[in-house]
Amino acid sequence: MKILLLGKNGQVGWELQRSLAPLGELVALDRHTLGGLSGDLASLESLRSTIRQIAPDVIVNAAAYTAVDKAESETELASRINGLATGVMAEEAAALGAWLVHYSTDYVFNGQGVTPWLETDLVAPVNHYGASKLAGEQAIIASGCKHLVFRTSWVYGARGNNFAKTMLRLAKDRETLSVIADQVGAPTGADLIADVTATALRQVMDQQHLSGLYHLAAAGEVSWHGYATHVIEFAQANGEQLAVKAVDPIETTAYPTPARRPLNSRLNTQKLRDNFSLHLPDWQSGVTRMLMEVLNK
Ligand code: NDP
To answer: Is 129 a catalytic residue?
Structure first.
């Protein structure tokens, strides 16, 4: 089996390089051109030509325009990368009879209510990033290609920057932190997403009826404030010297950003767990693992 991985150095892409390796021949690209192959999603024709040259059995797209606030001003670029480029992959996958694995977001929803979102719930993005990711999903479905689209939330990886590392850095210097308490979701490890992807891919190879859209997130829920508190308490319990004395809850309205954020990022993952016989661990277990790595424990 030949697998083309796009976005190999992002949080999820990095973990996919590991989890997909045992499944077959892996061609992993970032946005740069390598040996005549280009993984730059902003250049639609080079992307199309790269897919044709490789002729993969599976395309896994971990590349995306993920700068949520910047997407409000760079609308055309965000739409090209998240919408149009995904459409090119879908068309080429359909023509090749290949599978397309793609990642989307809870930001396709408007964030109202407190009920975890189902795959069948009405979509209504509140910012341009969400709209551009929705355009990508719709292009995949319209193409008729075999696909796995995983909507996920609050992704972190041990490599690179993440929310927990930012909190730890701030907690070393400041006595008080103010963190948003009215946005609720489930921090989900890039390693978990990559492992679920590999497990699901193995299963769909001989069960094509499993093609579809799935919600994928760690179990449980927490606000950003609860997440920050958890991280700081864990670090202190493990001997980190922090200046912080209080983590104050604030409302989203107290922290204005260019892009609006949905308040309810809860995802119902029943469909994924049932169709693939999967267990999704609670968010604390993945975060603890990441913190152990970050703190070198
Ligand atoms: P990252 O931002 O860590 O990685 C995105 C990758 O896409 C980066 O490696 C980036 O490369 C690459 N990229 C950006 N523009 C281009 C381009 N023009 N051509 C090729 N590559 C490009 O994202 P995550 O790993 O966190 O996200 C993976 C998926 O999950 C995405 O589809 C995202 O929308 C989705 N998701 C993410 C969430 C999150 O909290 N992060 C939440 C919900 C969904 P470079 O480093 O060179 O810019």
So the answer is: yes
